Amino acid sequence: MSGIPLILVVEDDDDDRLLLQTATRKSPHSCNLVFAQDGVDALKLLETMQDTIPDLILTDLNMPLMDGMELVKELKSSLHWTHIPIIMFTTSHTDSTKVQAYRESIDRFITKPPTFEGLQEVWEQLYQYWSQLPKRNDQSGK
Fold first, then answer.
1. List of residues 6+ apart from 109 with CB closer than 8 A
2. Hey, what CATH class is 16-134 in?
3. For 29-77, what is each residue's pLDDT tens digit?
4. In the chain, what are the domain boundaries?
5. Burial 43-77 (b: 16+ CB within 10 A, else e)
């Protein structure tokens, strides 16, 4: 496997974005993070990223303008974006929220951990998840 993942993080909380950046910098696994404030911002950003499609989208659930569920619906209804794996990353942990998220075709649901150490562990899990995905330029993955 080669390459560094490009991850679109859709998160409206400045502290959560900073903590995620710090966790990824402290990891032995490199990545490129691109941030959007909410679903509307994410869709606009994706439209400008014509030649650089994210390998993974990590989205919060509760955000202004367009929340994570609405974003997932938009992305999964678009032939251009439907192939991008989406991980719902949220403080919500109710079963009904999880069921709804999976019905909207998210790929994974992860509850935000309460500690920085927990966030570092989650990042390692996310990296391992990404590393097992078929790569767009990997002919065997088609």
1. 87, 88, 90, 98, 101, 102
2. alpha beta
3. 888 999 999 999 999 999 998 778 899 999 998 899 899 999 999 999 9
4. 16-134
5. bebbeeeeeeebbbbbbbbebeebbbbbbbebbee
Nearest CA-CA partner of 12 in 31, 45, 35, 44: 35
Paired with 33 in beta bridges are 7
Residue type present at position 40: V
Q: What is the pTM of this model?
A: 0.86
Name the band, by pLDDT with cuts 50, 70 and 90, for residue 138: very low
DSSP label of 140? G
Give CA separation, 70 vs 7, 91, 113, in Å: 19, 17, 23
Tokens 């919500």 -> residue: 92
DSSP 141: G
